[in-house]
Amino acid sequence: MKVLLLAFEYLPVKVGGLAEAVTSIAEGLAGLGHEVLVFTPSHGRIEGEPVASFKISAFGGDFEVKAYERNQNGVRVFSLSDVLLDNPDVYGPGWEGLLQKTVHFGKASAGLLNELLKNEEKPEALHAHDWHTVFAAALIRKYFHLPLTATIHRLNKAKIPGYLFHEANVGELAPYPDIDPEHTLAYIANTVTTVSRSYMWEEWGFFGMFEGKVTHVFNGIDCSFWNEKFLEGDRRERRKKVLEKFGMSDGKAFMFIGRFDKAQKGVDTLFHAIELLSKDPAFSEMRFIVIGKGDPGLERWAHAMENRFPNFKAVTRLLKREEARELYGSVDFVVVPSYFEPFGLVQLEAMCLGAVPIGSSVGGIKDTIIDLDADPERATGILVPPRDSFALARAMIRAKELDEETLNRLRKNAKVRVRDFTWEAACRRYIRVYRDETDKAIPFIR
Q1: pTM for the structure as a whole
Q2: Whole-number Å distance between alpha carbons of 439 and 433
Q3: Tens digits of per-residue pLDDT, 157-207?
C-alpha cells in the first residue's frame, strides 16, 4: 500500500511527542513493506535532494517553494521549504505566523503531490496528524480525492479565523467567522482516530460529532531502547548510585518526569501530595526526583521544595533519552499524575525498565496500567483519581510498603503488558483503518 502522511513534526525536528509518534508510524508502516511518503515543513532544516520547485500564491504574494526528498529508515521524507516554512520556530513565529505557516504548508503539499504525480502512482491513503495539517489534507482531498484518516493526538480546542480557509482555497469549509480546525479535519475525513480508547470516550463530546467513523489506535513503545540491558548492576545498586549523584542517601525512590504543564500534567497535585507526606513518619524514608521544564511558577515551586526538603531533588532541564533511561532503570516508582492523557509514554517507558507506575486513572494511563486493586495477580501498577492529592499521597505510602515479592510481580507483569503496545501492532491496525476494516466506537455498546 502507498501511504502519504502529513505532519508538522518529524524527526529530527521535535517539539513534543508528536514527532516520535509520526516517525514511529511511518517507519513501522515501511517495515511492514508499505511505501510511505511524509510531507512536513522544513522548519529550517534543509536535508535531502531537491525534487521539485514551484510557486504558490498566498496572502497577496507569490512564494517560491522547494521540496527536498531524503530516505530516512525506509521512509520517503519530503521537506517543504519557502520563506515561512523555513522558520525554525515549529509552531510559529507567533500565533499569526503559525496560522500563515499552516496555509503555506497546505498549498505547498498540494503542489508537491501534483508534481510527484507526473511521474508516479497516486497514494492509496492519506493520513493527517493534528489540526495544523487541516489545509494540506483539505486541498489534497479536494484535488486528488484520496481517502483521509485524521488522527487527533491531543485535542487543542481552539478556533481560527474563517478567512484562512478562503486564503487556503477551501472557503467552502468555512461557513462561520471562526472555525474549529479539528472539527473541520474530522468532518472531511473518512475515518477519525485518536490514540487511546479511554481518551476517545472521555472526549466523546467532540468525537461523538463524527459517530460512525471514529475509532482508536493505541500508540506504541520501543522497548528495544527502553531496556535494562543497557544498564549495569542490579536495581538497588543503580538506585543507590543515582540518589548519591543527587546528594541523597538511599531510600525508596519516586520520580516524576515530564512537562511542567499546569493544564495537563498534574505537577501541582504531586507537589501538594508530597507536602502532605512531609507530615507522615514514612516521609524520611522516601526520596523524590522531579524532572521537567515549562511553567515558570511550577519550576519555582519545585526549587522551593528542594530547599525545604533534603529528600527532594528538582531538575528543571530536558534530559537526553539515555539519561532518562538510567533513571527509569534505577528508581522504584514513577508518578504520572496527569489530569488527562490521550496516551502517555512515561508509564510505558517506566514499565519497560522495571519502575512501577503510579498514575491517574485517565485516558491512555488507565488503558495501559492494570491496577493493583482491580487485578492483583495481573497488576502492573497503581491507579488513583486525578486531581486528588490525598489519594496520591496514600498511594505513594502504600507503594513504599509493598513487599519485594509484590514489587517483582508488578515488574514482571509490566514487561509482559508493554508487548501489547508495540508500533508494529499500531501500524497493522492503521492499515486496517485505511481500508475501513476496523471496529468503530458505538456509544450504546460498552
Answers
A1: 0.93
A2: 9
A3: 999 999 999 999 999 999 999 999 999 999 999 999 999 999 999 999 999
Say if residues 298 and 267 touch (Cβ distance below 8 Å). Answer: yes
Domains of the chain: 2-220+423-434 (3.40.50.2000), 228-420 (3.40.50.2000)
Determine the residue type at 411: R
Cα–Cα distance for residue pair 200/216, rounded to 1 Å: 7
Nearest to 393 by CA among 443, 358, 347: 358
Rounded to whole angstroms, the Cα distance separating 55 from 51 reads 14
Distances (CA, A) of 336 to 66, 343, 358, 369: 43, 12, 6, 11
| Distance from C-alpha of 376 to C-alpha of 358, rounded to nearest angstrom | 15
Q: Tell me which residue has cell 528508581.
A: 331
What cell numbers appear for 65 in the block? 517553494
pLDDT tens by residue, 293-349: 999 999 999 999 999 999 999 999 988 889 999 999 999 999 999 999 999 999 999
With contact defined as beta carbons under 8 Å apart, do 49 and 70 qualify?
A: yes
Verify cis geometry, omega within 30 degrees of 0, for the bond prior to 93.
Answer: yes
Backbone phi, psi, residue 154, to 5°: -160, 130
